[in-house]
């Protein structure tokens, strides 16, 4: 009976009930019908009090900053920067697609936001240049998996809250995994483009003076993620204050530097922020109530004990957890999978000597790959809906990119020294 609420969550979710409502309904059913010793009022109180968290304010601020950047012209400056860097390579626009997602990671922090933006801007241009719609859509979805890994990704903040680790430390740790994913996708694009004859978007490599000019134009956008990291490292502000500063910085740059942000844009910006925040925070508070049930029944300890009975080999355990996360990521939205699994698995890996910051990156990369993978990958649906590509064609075109991301995941999993080098150096 103690595992019945877990079963209820999955039954409701696969019946098309939103994950937040499924989590809350399962928790309520447990404390109403199974554990009748606790008053139901306590569950409702838990639901309300879990929203009174100062660190949670970082989420709407960073979502708002990402939305402002799209209207402020910062995203277009980053795209020009990506073109200058990689447009001369084989498969030029596809390479631009990957690099733009990497640069946008420190801006939007959201895979779906990045995928939607690039579908509207880059995919039509790629089709005009002779790239197939399937290839263009698949690389857009695959590259968008990089965005939440580069700080200040929302999932990085959520994991830091769940695992009680330093937000600044996990932000810094995100750079190397993001670059590994970027390089693996760029190599895959190069191989496919050579076979299909996809040409560069630029006739020749940009001259140094052109590169310097573009760096100068894009410097305001490029400064943001590094400014946040430095501010957190030196104790100038908290993660929540960093989000507020990011909103102010983007607004000032949009109004006074690039001069593309207008007052009337704020209606859409506020709508984007409200929609994005409400969906994320509702899941978090529902998961908090569900976590209360799991703590009451000692579910994390039972799971940890069960997994450690299977093996106490750190590397084999990480392989098992990777497979579990990938499977969950195929069916659950990324944030939901992270919120459900992280509290269960962090005690296991810590007991085996895995750094929780390193494990956080493994988990986030896992669920991002799941977001590209059928049958329910969120980035897959986002890109296919916008471009009108049939799902089966997407699946066929995405296989090489999913393999490339899995290779990156293995490197991230089994080379902890590489991933933890920057946070260990700075902290």
Automatic annotation (TrEMBL):
<feature type="transmembrane region" description="Helical">
    <location>
        <begin position="242"/>
        <end position="261"/>
    </location>
</feature>
<feature type="transmembrane region" description="Helical">
    <location>
        <begin position="6"/>
        <end position="33"/>
    </location>
</feature>
<feature type="transmembrane region" description="Helical">
    <location>
        <begin position="360"/>
        <end position="389"/>
    </location>
</feature>
<feature type="transmembrane region" description="Helical">
    <location>
        <begin position="401"/>
        <end position="422"/>
    </location>
</feature>
<keyword id="KW-1133">Transmembrane helix</keyword>
<keyword id="KW-0812">Transmembrane</keyword>
<dbReference type="InterPro" id="IPR010656">
    <property type="entry name" value="DctM"/>
</dbReference>
<feature type="transmembrane region" description="Helical">
    <location>
        <begin position="337"/>
        <end position="354"/>
    </location>
</feature>
<feature type="transmembrane region" description="Helical">
    <location>
        <begin position="219"/>
        <end position="236"/>
    </location>
</feature>
<keyword id="KW-0472">Membrane</keyword>
<feature type="transmembrane region" description="Helical">
    <location>
        <begin position="94"/>
        <end position="113"/>
    </location>
</feature>
<feature type="transmembrane region" description="Helical">
    <location>
        <begin position="134"/>
        <end position="158"/>
    </location>
</feature>
<dbReference type="InterPro" id="IPR004681">
    <property type="entry name" value="TRAP_DctM"/>
</dbReference>
<feature type="transmembrane region" description="Helical">
    <location>
        <begin position="170"/>
        <end position="192"/>
    </location>
</feature>
<keyword id="KW-1003">Cell membrane</keyword>
<keyword id="KW-0997">Cell inner membrane</keyword>
<feature type="transmembrane region" description="Helical">
    <location>
        <begin position="54"/>
        <end position="74"/>
    </location>
</feature>
<protein>
    <submittedName>
        <fullName>Tripartite ATP-independent transporter DctM subunit</fullName>
    </submittedName>
</protein>
<dbReference type="Pfam" id="PF06808">
    <property type="entry name" value="DctM"/>
</dbReference>
<feature type="domain" description="TRAP C4-dicarboxylate transport system permease DctM subunit">
    <location>
        <begin position="7"/>
        <end position="418"/>
    </location>
</feature>
<feature type="transmembrane region" description="Helical">
    <location>
        <begin position="273"/>
        <end position="295"/>
    </location>
</feature>
